[in-house]
Design a protein that fits this description.
By secondary structure, this protein is an alpha+beta fold. Among the domains are: about 180 residues, f41 fragment of flagellin, N-terminal domain, CATH 1.20.1330.10; about 90 residues, no CATH class. Helix content is about 50%, strand content about 15%. The protein is built from seven helices and 13 strands. Strands 3-11-6-7-8 form a five-stranded antiparallel beta sheet, with no helix packed on it. Strands 4-5-10-9 form a four-stranded antiparallel beta sheet, with no helix packed on it. The protein has a two-stranded antiparallel sheet with strand order 1-2. The longest helix is centred in the first third of the chain and has 55 residues. About 25% of the residues are buried.
Length: about 400
Protein backbone atom coordinates (compact mmCIF):
# COMPACT_ATOMS: atom_id res chain seq x y z
CA UNK A 1 0.00 0.00 0.00
CA UNK A 2 1.36 3.36 -1.03
CA UNK A 3 1.59 5.94 1.79
CA UNK A 4 1.35 9.44 0.46
CA UNK A 5 2.98 12.49 1.95
CA UNK A 6 -0.47 13.90 2.71
CA UNK A 7 -1.74 10.90 4.66
CA UNK A 8 1.49 10.70 6.61
CA UNK A 9 1.25 14.37 7.47
CA UNK A 10 -2.39 14.06 8.66
CA UNK A 11 -1.58 11.08 10.84
CA UNK A 12 1.35 12.91 12.38
CA UNK A 13 -0.75 16.02 12.98
CA UNK A 14 -3.45 14.01 14.77
CA UNK A 15 -0.85 12.43 17.02
CA UNK A 16 0.70 15.82 17.87
CA UNK A 17 -2.73 17.24 18.75
CA UNK A 18 -3.62 14.18 20.84
CA UNK A 19 -0.42 14.37 22.85
CA UNK A 20 -0.80 18.15 23.16
CA UNK A 21 -4.28 17.63 24.67
CA UNK A 22 -2.87 15.10 27.13
CA UNK A 23 -0.19 17.58 28.18
CA UNK A 24 -2.73 20.41 28.60
CA UNK A 25 -4.99 18.16 30.71
CA UNK A 26 -2.05 17.14 32.89
CA UNK A 27 -1.07 20.78 33.36
CA UNK A 28 -4.69 21.70 34.24
CA UNK A 29 -4.89 18.97 36.87
CA UNK A 30 -1.69 20.24 38.48
CA UNK A 31 -2.93 23.85 38.39
CA UNK A 32 -6.38 23.10 39.90
CA UNK A 33 -5.29 20.18 42.09
CA UNK A 34 -8.47 18.46 40.83
CA UNK A 35 -8.75 15.33 38.75
CA UNK A 36 -12.30 16.29 37.74
CA UNK A 37 -12.48 19.78 36.24
CA UNK A 38 -15.56 19.20 34.13
CA UNK A 39 -18.30 16.59 34.11
CA UNK A 40 -16.97 15.04 30.91
CA UNK A 41 -13.73 14.09 32.73
CA UNK A 42 -15.62 11.40 34.67
CA UNK A 43 -19.43 11.67 34.58
CA UNK A 44 -20.06 9.05 37.28
CA UNK A 45 -17.55 10.47 39.77
CA UNK A 46 -18.58 14.04 38.92
CA UNK A 47 -22.20 13.29 39.85
CA UNK A 48 -21.06 11.74 43.13
CA UNK A 49 -18.86 14.78 43.87
CA UNK A 50 -21.81 17.15 43.30
CA UNK A 51 -23.92 15.14 45.77
CA UNK A 52 -21.13 15.22 48.34
CA UNK A 53 -20.64 18.97 47.92
CA UNK A 54 -24.35 19.50 48.46
CA UNK A 55 -24.20 17.43 51.66
CA UNK A 56 -21.10 19.32 52.82
CA UNK A 57 -22.86 22.64 52.22
CA UNK A 58 -25.86 21.51 54.30
CA UNK A 59 -23.52 20.32 57.02
CA UNK A 60 -21.73 23.68 57.11
CA UNK A 61 -25.06 25.51 57.37
CA UNK A 62 -26.13 23.22 60.21
CA UNK A 63 -22.89 23.96 62.07
CA UNK A 64 -23.45 27.70 61.52
CA UNK A 65 -26.99 27.32 62.90
CA UNK A 66 -25.69 25.46 65.94
CA UNK A 67 -22.96 28.04 66.59
CA UNK A 68 -25.51 30.87 66.38
CA UNK A 69 -27.90 29.01 68.71
CA UNK A 70 -25.03 28.43 71.14
CA UNK A 71 -24.23 32.15 71.19
CA UNK A 72 -27.87 32.95 71.92
CA UNK A 73 -27.94 30.28 74.65
CA UNK A 74 -24.83 31.83 76.23
CA UNK A 75 -26.69 35.15 76.30
CA UNK A 76 -29.66 33.47 77.99
CA UNK A 77 -27.32 32.02 80.60
CA UNK A 78 -25.83 35.44 81.33
CA UNK A 79 -29.15 37.26 81.70
CA UNK A 80 -30.86 34.53 83.73
CA UNK A 81 -27.86 34.64 86.04
CA UNK A 82 -28.35 38.39 86.40
CA UNK A 83 -32.05 37.79 87.05
CA UNK A 84 -31.24 35.30 89.82
CA UNK A 85 -28.92 37.85 91.44
CA UNK A 86 -31.64 40.50 91.20
CA UNK A 87 -34.20 38.27 92.92
CA UNK A 88 -31.63 37.48 95.59
CA UNK A 89 -31.23 41.18 96.33
CA UNK A 90 -35.02 41.64 96.38
CA UNK A 91 -35.31 38.89 98.97
CA UNK A 92 -32.65 40.56 101.15
CA UNK A 93 -34.73 43.74 101.15
CA UNK A 94 -37.97 41.92 101.93
CA UNK A 95 -36.39 39.87 104.73
CA UNK A 96 -35.12 43.04 106.33
CA UNK A 97 -38.44 44.87 106.08
CA UNK A 98 -40.51 41.87 107.20
CA UNK A 99 -39.25 42.40 110.76
CA UNK A 100 -41.69 44.86 112.32
CA UNK A 101 -39.32 45.45 115.24
CA UNK A 102 -36.65 47.02 113.03
CA UNK A 103 -38.64 48.21 110.01
CA UNK A 104 -39.73 51.85 109.90
CA UNK A 105 -41.56 54.02 107.41
CA UNK A 106 -38.21 55.43 106.28
CA UNK A 107 -36.56 52.03 105.78
CA UNK A 108 -39.65 50.70 103.97
CA UNK A 109 -39.61 53.66 101.60
CA UNK A 110 -35.90 53.19 100.92
CA UNK A 111 -36.50 49.50 100.27
CA UNK A 112 -39.48 50.30 98.05
CA UNK A 113 -37.44 52.71 95.93
CA UNK A 114 -34.64 50.17 95.51
CA UNK A 115 -37.19 47.48 94.69
CA UNK A 116 -38.72 49.75 92.04
CA UNK A 117 -35.27 50.25 90.56
CA UNK A 118 -34.78 46.47 90.56
CA UNK A 119 -38.08 46.11 88.72
CA UNK A 120 -36.91 48.57 86.06
CA UNK A 121 -33.67 46.61 85.82
CA UNK A 122 -35.73 43.45 85.38
CA UNK A 123 -37.47 45.08 82.42
CA UNK A 124 -34.06 45.81 80.88
CA UNK A 125 -33.00 42.20 81.39
CA UNK A 126 -36.26 40.96 79.86
CA UNK A 127 -35.66 43.23 76.85
CA UNK A 128 -32.15 41.95 76.18
CA UNK A 129 -31.22 41.96 72.50
CA UNK A 130 -28.91 39.70 70.52
CA UNK A 131 -27.92 40.89 67.06
CA UNK A 132 -30.68 43.50 67.23
CA UNK A 133 -33.44 41.01 68.15
CA UNK A 134 -35.28 40.74 71.46
CA UNK A 135 -34.51 37.26 72.73
CA UNK A 136 -37.49 36.84 75.10
CA UNK A 137 -40.22 37.92 72.64
CA UNK A 138 -40.84 34.57 70.95
CA UNK A 139 -41.42 35.24 67.25
CA UNK A 140 -42.00 38.96 67.91
CA UNK A 141 -38.27 39.65 67.96
CA UNK A 142 -38.71 43.19 66.63
CA UNK A 143 -40.66 44.21 69.76
CA UNK A 144 -39.42 44.68 73.34
CA UNK A 145 -40.65 41.70 75.33
CA UNK A 146 -42.01 43.79 78.22
CA UNK A 147 -43.19 47.32 78.79
CA UNK A 148 -41.85 49.50 81.55
CA UNK A 149 -44.24 51.48 83.75
CA UNK A 150 -46.79 53.52 81.77
CA UNK A 151 -49.59 55.99 82.50
CA UNK A 152 -52.62 56.99 80.45
CA UNK A 153 -55.08 59.82 81.01
CA UNK A 154 -58.41 60.27 79.32
CA UNK A 155 -60.08 63.59 78.62
CA UNK A 156 -63.66 64.12 79.79
CA UNK A 157 -66.77 65.32 77.92
CA UNK A 158 -67.99 68.78 78.88
CA UNK A 159 -71.12 70.70 78.11
CA UNK A 160 -69.74 72.31 74.96
CA UNK A 161 -67.05 69.80 74.00
CA UNK A 162 -64.16 67.98 75.68
CA UNK A 163 -61.03 68.41 77.75
CA UNK A 164 -57.67 67.11 76.54
CA UNK A 165 -55.25 65.19 78.72
CA UNK A 166 -51.65 64.07 78.23
CA UNK A 167 -49.55 62.05 80.66
CA UNK A 168 -46.06 60.65 81.27
CA UNK A 169 -44.11 58.77 83.91
CA UNK A 170 -41.85 61.01 85.96
CA UNK A 171 -40.51 58.59 88.55
CA UNK A 172 -41.29 54.86 88.28
CA UNK A 173 -40.03 54.34 91.83
CA UNK A 174 -42.85 56.53 93.15
CA UNK A 175 -45.60 54.65 91.30
CA UNK A 176 -47.77 52.21 93.21
CA UNK A 177 -49.94 50.60 90.51
CA UNK A 178 -53.03 52.61 91.51
CA UNK A 179 -55.55 54.36 89.32
CA UNK A 180 -56.52 57.97 90.00
CA UNK A 181 -59.22 60.48 89.20
CA UNK A 182 -58.83 64.21 88.81
CA UNK A 183 -62.18 65.40 90.11
CA UNK A 184 -63.21 68.97 89.38
CA UNK A 185 -64.96 70.65 92.31
CA UNK A 186 -65.40 73.84 90.30
CA UNK A 187 -64.41 75.22 86.93
CA UNK A 188 -61.08 76.32 88.39
CA UNK A 189 -60.48 73.78 91.19
CA UNK A 190 -59.91 70.02 91.48
CA UNK A 191 -58.95 67.16 93.79
CA UNK A 192 -56.79 64.12 92.93
CA UNK A 193 -58.21 60.90 94.42
CA UNK A 194 -56.61 57.45 94.64
CA UNK A 195 -59.32 55.13 93.27
CA UNK A 196 -58.04 52.07 95.16
CA UNK A 197 -57.92 53.70 98.59
CA UNK A 198 -60.53 56.39 98.08
CA UNK A 199 -58.16 58.88 99.67
CA UNK A 200 -57.37 62.32 98.31
CA UNK A 201 -53.80 62.66 97.06
CA UNK A 202 -54.26 66.41 96.56
CA UNK A 203 -57.17 68.63 97.58
CA UNK A 204 -58.57 71.97 96.41
CA UNK A 205 -55.93 72.55 93.75
CA UNK A 206 -56.26 75.52 91.42
CA UNK A 207 -56.89 74.63 87.78
CA UNK A 208 -55.29 76.45 84.89
CA UNK A 209 -55.67 75.08 81.38
CA UNK A 210 -52.48 73.31 80.28
CA UNK A 211 -50.94 73.09 83.74
CA UNK A 212 -48.86 70.06 84.80
CA UNK A 213 -50.39 68.07 87.66
CA UNK A 214 -47.89 65.80 89.42
CA UNK A 215 -48.66 62.96 91.83
CA UNK A 216 -47.72 59.32 92.42
CA UNK A 217 -44.68 59.48 90.15
CA UNK A 218 -46.65 60.67 87.10
CA UNK A 219 -47.46 63.94 85.39
CA UNK A 220 -50.81 64.72 83.81
CA UNK A 221 -51.49 67.84 81.75
CA UNK A 222 -55.16 68.82 81.45
CA UNK A 223 -56.23 71.53 79.05
CA UNK A 224 -59.46 73.00 77.71
CA UNK A 225 -60.40 71.35 74.47
CA UNK A 226 -63.55 72.49 72.75
CA UNK A 227 -64.94 73.36 76.15
CA UNK A 228 -63.90 74.00 79.74
CA UNK A 229 -64.44 71.95 82.92
CA UNK A 230 -67.17 72.33 85.46
CA UNK A 231 -67.91 70.92 88.91
CA UNK A 232 -68.40 67.13 88.87
CA UNK A 233 -66.25 66.42 85.85
CA UNK A 234 -63.63 63.66 86.12
CA UNK A 235 -60.42 62.91 84.24
CA UNK A 236 -59.39 59.26 84.67
CA UNK A 237 -55.71 58.36 85.11
CA UNK A 238 -54.65 54.73 84.69
CA UNK A 239 -51.18 53.58 85.69
CA UNK A 240 -49.72 50.33 84.47
CA UNK A 241 -46.78 48.81 86.35
CA UNK A 242 -43.84 47.23 84.54
CA UNK A 243 -44.42 43.79 83.13
CA UNK A 244 -46.96 43.90 80.29
CA UNK A 245 -45.82 41.20 77.82
CA UNK A 246 -45.60 42.13 74.14
CA UNK A 247 -44.20 38.90 72.79
CA UNK A 248 -45.72 35.47 72.21
CA UNK A 249 -45.09 31.96 73.43
CA UNK A 250 -43.80 30.63 70.11
CA UNK A 251 -40.70 28.44 70.05
CA UNK A 252 -37.88 29.26 67.66
CA UNK A 253 -36.09 26.27 66.13
CA UNK A 254 -33.04 25.50 64.01
CA UNK A 255 -32.39 22.55 61.72
CA UNK A 256 -29.81 20.14 63.11
CA UNK A 257 -30.16 17.53 60.41
CA UNK A 258 -32.45 16.65 57.55
CA UNK A 259 -35.94 16.80 59.05
CA UNK A 260 -34.68 17.29 62.61
CA UNK A 261 -35.07 20.55 64.53
CA UNK A 262 -34.33 21.81 68.04
CA UNK A 263 -35.76 24.70 70.06
CA UNK A 264 -33.32 27.55 70.68
CA UNK A 265 -35.19 30.24 72.64
CA UNK A 266 -36.69 30.94 76.05
CA UNK A 267 -39.93 32.91 76.00
CA UNK A 268 -40.50 35.83 78.35
CA UNK A 269 -43.98 34.72 79.36
CA UNK A 270 -42.53 31.48 80.72
CA UNK A 271 -39.37 32.85 82.38
CA UNK A 272 -40.85 36.06 83.79
CA UNK A 273 -44.53 35.17 84.16
CA UNK A 274 -44.46 31.44 84.84
CA UNK A 275 -46.74 30.58 81.91
CA UNK A 276 -46.72 26.83 81.33
CA UNK A 277 -45.02 26.13 84.67
CA UNK A 278 -46.92 24.41 87.46
CA UNK A 279 -47.20 26.95 90.27
CA UNK A 280 -45.44 29.54 88.09
CA UNK A 281 -44.82 33.05 89.43
CA UNK A 282 -45.29 36.33 87.58
CA UNK A 283 -42.08 38.09 88.63
CA UNK A 284 -43.34 41.55 87.73
CA UNK A 285 -46.64 41.08 89.56
CA UNK A 286 -44.68 39.81 92.57
CA UNK A 287 -42.35 42.81 92.61
CA UNK A 288 -45.28 45.21 92.16
CA UNK A 289 -47.24 43.62 95.00
CA UNK A 290 -44.21 43.86 97.30
CA UNK A 291 -43.85 47.50 96.27
CA UNK A 292 -47.46 48.17 97.27
CA UNK A 293 -47.10 46.28 100.56
CA UNK A 294 -44.00 48.30 101.47
CA UNK A 295 -45.81 51.51 100.60
CA UNK A 296 -48.77 50.60 102.80
CA UNK A 297 -46.78 49.01 105.64
CA UNK A 298 -48.63 45.71 105.14
CA UNK A 299 -46.30 43.39 107.09
CA UNK A 300 -48.47 40.30 106.64
CA UNK A 301 -48.17 40.61 102.87
CA UNK A 302 -44.47 41.45 103.05
CA UNK A 303 -43.79 38.27 105.05
CA UNK A 304 -46.02 36.16 102.79
CA UNK A 305 -44.05 37.26 99.73
CA UNK A 306 -40.85 35.62 101.02
CA UNK A 307 -42.06 32.16 99.96
CA UNK A 308 -43.10 33.51 96.56
CA UNK A 309 -39.64 35.00 96.09
CA UNK A 310 -38.14 31.57 96.79
CA UNK A 311 -40.48 30.03 94.22
CA UNK A 312 -39.59 32.75 91.72
CA UNK A 313 -35.87 32.14 92.23
CA UNK A 314 -36.38 28.41 91.72
CA UNK A 315 -38.37 29.13 88.56
CA UNK A 316 -35.54 31.20 87.08
CA UNK A 317 -32.91 28.64 88.16
CA UNK A 318 -34.87 25.84 86.48
CA UNK A 319 -35.11 27.81 83.24
CA UNK A 320 -31.40 28.54 83.40
CA UNK A 321 -30.71 24.83 83.92
CA UNK A 322 -32.98 23.97 80.99
CA UNK A 323 -30.99 26.37 78.85
CA UNK A 324 -27.74 24.82 80.10
CA UNK A 325 -28.95 21.37 79.04
CA UNK A 326 -29.63 22.80 75.61
CA UNK A 327 -26.09 24.22 75.43
CA UNK A 328 -24.65 20.77 76.19
CA UNK A 329 -26.83 19.21 73.50
CA UNK A 330 -25.77 21.84 70.96
CA UNK A 331 -22.10 21.15 71.69
CA UNK A 332 -22.65 17.43 71.16
CA UNK A 333 -24.53 18.07 67.93
CA UNK A 334 -21.76 20.35 66.67
CA UNK A 335 -19.11 17.71 67.38
CA UNK A 336 -21.15 15.07 65.59
CA UNK A 337 -21.87 17.33 62.63
CA UNK A 338 -18.17 18.28 62.39
CA UNK A 339 -17.27 14.58 62.24
CA UNK A 340 -19.84 14.02 59.50
CA UNK A 341 -18.45 16.98 57.56
CA UNK A 342 -14.90 15.65 57.87
CA UNK A 343 -16.02 12.25 56.54
CA UNK A 344 -17.80 13.87 53.61
CA UNK A 345 -14.72 15.95 52.82
CA UNK A 346 -12.56 12.81 52.76
CA UNK A 347 -14.95 11.08 50.35
CA UNK A 348 -15.06 14.15 48.12
CA UNK A 349 -11.29 14.50 48.17
CA UNK A 350 -10.81 10.84 47.24
CA UNK A 351 -12.99 11.35 44.17
CA UNK A 352 -12.00 14.85 43.09
CA UNK A 353 -8.54 15.77 44.38
CA UNK A 354 -5.36 14.62 42.71
CA UNK A 355 -2.48 12.61 44.11
CA UNK A 356 0.21 15.24 43.63
CA UNK A 357 3.06 12.76 43.15
CA UNK A 358 1.05 10.75 40.62
CA UNK A 359 -0.09 13.91 38.84
CA UNK A 360 3.48 15.19 38.62
CA UNK A 361 4.56 11.89 37.11
CA UNK A 362 1.72 12.04 34.58
CA UNK A 363 2.65 15.62 33.70
CA UNK A 364 6.31 14.72 33.15
CA UNK A 365 5.30 11.71 31.09
CA UNK A 366 2.89 13.76 28.96
CA UNK A 367 5.50 16.44 28.44
CA UNK A 368 8.13 13.87 27.39
CA UNK A 369 5.72 12.15 25.01
CA UNK A 370 4.73 15.45 23.44
CA UNK A 371 8.36 16.50 22.98
CA UNK A 372 9.22 13.09 21.56
CA UNK A 373 6.33 13.38 19.11
CA UNK A 374 7.58 16.75 17.93
CA UNK A 375 11.10 15.39 17.54
CA UNK A 376 9.87 12.38 15.55
CA UNK A 377 7.77 14.64 13.37
CA UNK A 378 10.77 16.78 12.53
CA UNK A 379 12.69 13.66 11.44
CA UNK A 380 9.90 12.13 9.42
CA UNK A 381 8.94 15.23 7.46
CA UNK A 382 12.20 15.75 5.47
CA UNK A 383 12.86 18.81 3.31
CA UNK A 384 11.31 18.59 -0.19
CA UNK A 385 12.19 20.24 -3.53
CA UNK A 386 9.94 23.14 -2.60
CA UNK A 387 12.26 24.06 0.27
CA UNK A 388 14.96 24.82 -2.26
CA UNK A 389 12.79 26.86 -4.66
CA UNK A 390 12.82 30.01 -2.56
Amino acid sequence: MRVTENSMFNQLRRQVFRNSDSLINAQERMATQKRINRISDNPVSAARVLDLKSSISRSKQTINNIEHATSVADTYDTVTGQLSDLLGRAKELVVKESNEATSTAATREAARIELSNLTSEMVQIANTQFEGKYIFSGYQTDKPAFNDATVAAGGAPVTAGTLTAASKVLDATAMNDHDYEIRFTAANAFDVVDVQTGLAVASNQSYTSGQAIRFGGVEVTVANGTGSPSAGMVVSVTTTPPGAYNGDGQTQEIEIGQGNRIATNLTGDRVFQGVGISGGIDLFALMNSINTALSEGDYDTIQAKLDELDTASEQVSNERARNGTRVNLLEQLKDRQSSIQDSLEILRSDLEDIDVAEAMTDLTKAQNVYEATLTAASQIIQPSLLDFLQ
